[in-house]
Amino acid sequence: MKSIKQYLASVSSNMFSQRRCSFENILGNDDIKLILNKAILSKVPIHIILVGKPGCAKTMFLTEMMRMLKNFAILV
Q: Please, where are the H alpha helices in the chain?
């Protein structure tokens, strides 16, 4: 665990901007994008429930987050 903390401390601030999800495949829903990005960058666990009608991009948000976290895990 200490090596991960050392690695994160040694990388530039540009590295952390890559940790942010762009959600470029999802149009609109800017407020949800902001909330999810703040949850990703939070130091404490944040629980979010996505509720809405069918077709309102709930699954797309989760798919983008999983893709981003998978890519981040490869970097670490």
A: 2-10, 13-18, 30-41, 58-75
